[in-house]
Amino acid sequence: MVNFKKFILDNGLRVLVHEDHHTAMACVNILYDVGARDESPDQTGFAHLFEHLMFGGSVHIPSYDTPLQQVGGENNAFTSNDITNYYITLPAVNLETAFWLESDRMLSLAFSEQSLEVQRQVVIEEFKQRYLNQPYGDVWLKLRPLAYQEHPYKWATIGKELAHIEDAKMEDVKAFFKKHYNPQHAIMVVAGHVTFEQVQELAKKWFADIPAGERYERNLPQEPLQKVARRQEVDADVPVDAIHIVFHGPSRMHPDYQAMDLISDVLSRGASSRLFRRLVKEKKMFSEINAYVTGSIDDNLFVLEGKPSEGVSTADAEKAIWNELEILRNELVTEEELEKVKNKIESTLVFAELSILDKAMNLAYYELLGDAEGYNSEIEKYLAVRPQDIQTQAYKIFRPENSSTLIYHAKSK
Amino acid sequence: MQNQNNLNRSLPPQFNSIDGIRLISPQESQYDNGLKLFLFDSPGQELVRLEWIFNNVFDENENPLLNTTLSAMIKEGTVDMSSAEIAEKVDYYGAYLIPEYSYDQTSITLYVLNKHIDKLLPVIKQLLTEATIPQNELDTYIQNNKQTLSISLQKNDFVARRLFYTDVFGPNRYGTVPTAERYDNISREEVMGLYQKQMQPHNCTLFISGKVDDTLIGMVSTLFGKEWVATHPQISPSLPEIKPSVGKLIYEEREDALQSAIRLGYPVIDRSHTDFPEVQVVNTLLGGFFGSRLMRNIREEKGYTYSIGSAIASLKYGGFFTIASEVGAAFTRKTLVEIDMELDRLQEELVSDEELSIVKSYMLGSMLGSLESIFSHADKFKNVYYSGISLDYYDRYTQAVKSMTPERVMEIAKQYFRKDDLVKVVVGKLD
Questions:
Q1: Full domain range(s) for residue B166
Q2: pLDDT tens digit string along A61-118?
Q3: Measured between CB atoms, does A67 come within 8 Å of chain B?
Q4: Which residues between 28 and 57 in chain B have a beta carbon less than 8 angstroms from any beta carbon of chain A?
């Protein structure tokens, strides 16, 4: 149970406070309600590039990092298809420095040309390091456009191609900031060795006079119902074949989300999970195999990915996966197996409470989903799932016409 | 933009100096069978972590692949339980069972809610005393790891790391890397032999952190204090032979590389040496955090890389220093030149008080922030315990960081950060 209190400034900034006095640290997490899904198709990768530019100095503070390091703090950020999340951890005695830094960059950036040039180059190297210069690094660059035809989830957060990063212009950077980076599109969570009153006072002092920004209607293209199985096979410079099968599934706030998520746990969470037990250990058909849900706010993907063992054809390996999905469609999971994956969710939640940063990030994310209290009640949704719900979801999701399959054939074999 | 409350946004708020950390001293005891026990009690949460840590045992070949295999195989079957049954039990009770190999120790870690300890401790007892290392499971392990290895060998960073360890440490426990052939040569008999020698109470230290109550202690005493009987005499530790490394460039060309992996370094002192905290300060200044010179120069000014960093690792028999990055293929040589320049600069130019003070604040803040839960207290203790020193190391560390001077930085740089002795590995393209 993570206790918190909430207030909203007049400019729309939502602030949540979680006191945890076991630590001498504080953490300030700011979530901006913007991700790669908000990009235009000819300027992909922009939300993430922008995240890098947020560290290039703000209107009154030339360097973001140095003053924070000076007071013993650390920071980082990440961008997903849905959100951009920035966080600071620092000694609680220096909490105000975080408010000073974060409020100034919410007010306005310095928009330095030099920062744009360098960060563009850094992101290009990141693109190469993570997606191009690694075996299988480009899987999601291929899978997303295969699985999504309309929804902006069809591109990865890093962007569709290097050219989009190379072409980013300062005027686009400014427009992006104006639209998305303002109090009404932000959620701030302060956690750790702090008090509610202290945070209230600091939030008013540093954030209250930041203009609210303009509201806009998020109007994303919806993904049409998939009616035909999709398939792509590539010859790649990799040593081992690989299979990826993805299915469309319910969105994050859909009541069926938890059942779908538990299916992925039944299939692949822990050493006792079905895919690992049967396909890796018993039949020795895969050297590794995983199932998971992307966890997106909109239309989710249920992902299965594996590498067949030496001597096993991709066709046989694919059949073995489908066979496991068939079992889920045709047979109820036992109460005991369901209990097992629920227990794991429960213990993971207890362990997550050890970290103030994890708690702060989770509260911010659930607040974005609608209500931070959802973080505490999430477990009940999981516990309410019955074997029949698992079967119903499996039946809905694991249909060939709902699938996109990507096969890597190893060239070097 | 004007503020109605006359806030001067250009001025940073006042800040406070950062205190050292206060660590919890464990309660220490030893059972008759030789098992040592350290308890870190934090009654607040209903969870506990137990770590059984064994000193690695090596024969004269010092093939660490045997030890990594043992670590992975220990939960793959006992006299009474199959691999599947063990996994089922751990998962059913929401626990995490993580065997882990490191250079000098092998550990088995159990994370579990207190309410389930009675279900899981007997399982661990079996793993430690009655593991069978089934041939069938071993075959699967070897086959899968060979496949994973073949994939890793296509990653420039992985290859660079191998070349680095092989050269810096030579053919011993620290420098021997996995190959397909070495996997093929592993036999069940050897792994079993190692299991019998290594997994003994007198070679084990148990660290328990979290909610440590009487029920838990009672069970631990019975299962691991009384019922765990040594079946092999104690083995006195052997020392690895580490030759001083010689500066050189090792280059493996990858024609189609978009980026080069670079890795530079050599052996240095370990944590037990009195200069270690000061060496950490200089390392942090050079490449140990986002505001370090390497990061600012090579990423934030030149954009050659997504990330670059340096580190000092402490092993039981010595430590090592590394700088690592993956850089755009066209920037490989330029990056090496910049790294040289930064190493020279450490030795030739006094660091400004301002820059040094940022490094100090960062290190003190980072130390404070590293104490997140009772587990971190145990981790801090293990660091010093396995370096053969006591918890007052952290007071000395804080003191050394606070009192570091620009002159001392230069002295330390001259002694420990010598560019001519670096082993430089490049995998990718050099021109």
A1: 27-226
A2: 999 999 999 999 999 999 999 999 999 999 999 999 999 999 999 999 999 999 999 9
A3: yes
A4: 44-47
Q: Which of B195, B226, B257 is the last residue of a domain?
A: B226
pLDDT of B4 reads 53
Which of B112, B151, B365 is closest, CB to CB, to A72? B365
In this structure, the answer to whether residues B312 and B408 fall within a common structural domain is yes
Interface test with A, best of B41, B75, B254, B358 (most A CBs within 10 A): B358
Q: What is the dihedral of CA A256, A269, B211, B50, to 10 degrees?
A: 180
Residues B125 and B213 in one domain: yes
Would you mind telling me the total number of residues written for chain B in this entry? 431
Residue B272 has pLDDT above 80, yes or no: yes
> Which phi-psi region, left, alpha or beta, contains residue A88 (left: φ > 0; alpha: ψ -120 to 50)?
beta
pLDDT (tens digit, 9 = 90+) per residue, B221-255?
999 999 999 999 998 888 888 888 899 999 999 99
What's the confidence (pLDDT) of residue B237? Answer: 85
Q: Are residues B155 and B77 in the same domain?
A: yes
Q: Can you tell me the mean pLDDT for A42-50?
A: 94
**Nearest-CB residue to B328 (from A128, A272, A354):** A128
ipTM over 0.90: yes
B5 within 8 A of A103, measured Cβ to Cβ? no
Interface test with A, best of B1, B86, B141, B281 (most A CBs within 10 A): B1
Q: If we measure between CA atoms, which residue out of A413, A409, A408 comes closest to residue A146?
A: A408
Q: Do B200 and B318 sit in the same domain of this protein? A: no
Q: What is the CATH number of the domain that holds B162?
A: 3.30.830.10
Which residues 247-286 on chain A approach chain B with CB closer than 8 angstroms?
Answer: 269-273, 277, 280-281, 284
**Which of B196, B226, B256 corresponds to the end of one domain?**
B226
| Mean of pLDDT over chain B | 95
Helix intervals (H) in A54-195: 65-70, 95-107, 113-127, 139-147, 162-166, 170-180
Domain tally, chain B: 2
Question: Is B9 among the domain residues?
Answer: no
Q: How many residues does chain A have?
A: 413
Helix and strand counts by DSSP (H, E) for chain A: 15, 11
In a domain, B21, yes or no: no
In this predicted structure, what is the pLDDT of residue A186?
Answer: 98
CA distance B99 to B119: 18
A178 touches B at CB < 8 Å: no
Q: Which two tokens stand for residue A345?
A: 């969710």
pLDDT digits (tens, 9 = 90+) for A357-368: 999 999 999 999
Q: Looking at the complex, does the CB of residue A89 fall below 8 Å from at least one CB of chain B?
A: yes
Banded model confidence at residue A352, pLDDT cuts 50, 70, 90: confident
* Residues B330, B263 within the same domain: yes
CB B318 within 8 A of CB B269: yes
Dihedral sign for Cα A158, A163, A166, A168, please: negative
Contacts of A89 in chain B (CB under 8 A): 369
CA distances to A45, A73, A92, A136 from B15, in Å: 37, 11, 10, 47
Residue B390 lies in a domain: yes
Cβ neighbourhood burial of A111 (10 Å; 0-12, 13-18, 19+):
middle
- Whether residue B83 and residue A281 make contact (CB cut-off 8 A), yes or no, is yes
For residue A295, give the 3-state DSSP assignment.
coil
Say whether both B314 and B391 belong to one domain. Answer: yes
A329, A391 contact by CB (below 8 A): yes
Q: Could you tell me the sign of the dihedral formed by the alpha carbons of B380, B385, B386, B389, in that order?
A: positive
B181 and B218, same domain (yes or no):
yes
What's the token pair of residue B381?
A: 């203790």
Could you tell me if B266 and B181 lie in one domain?
A: no
Contact status of A331 with chain B (Cβ, < 8 Å): no
B143 domain residue, yes or no: yes
Chain A residues inside the 8 Å CB shell of B6: none
User: CA–CA distance from B112 to each of A265, B42, B116 (Å)?
Assistant: 18, 14, 7
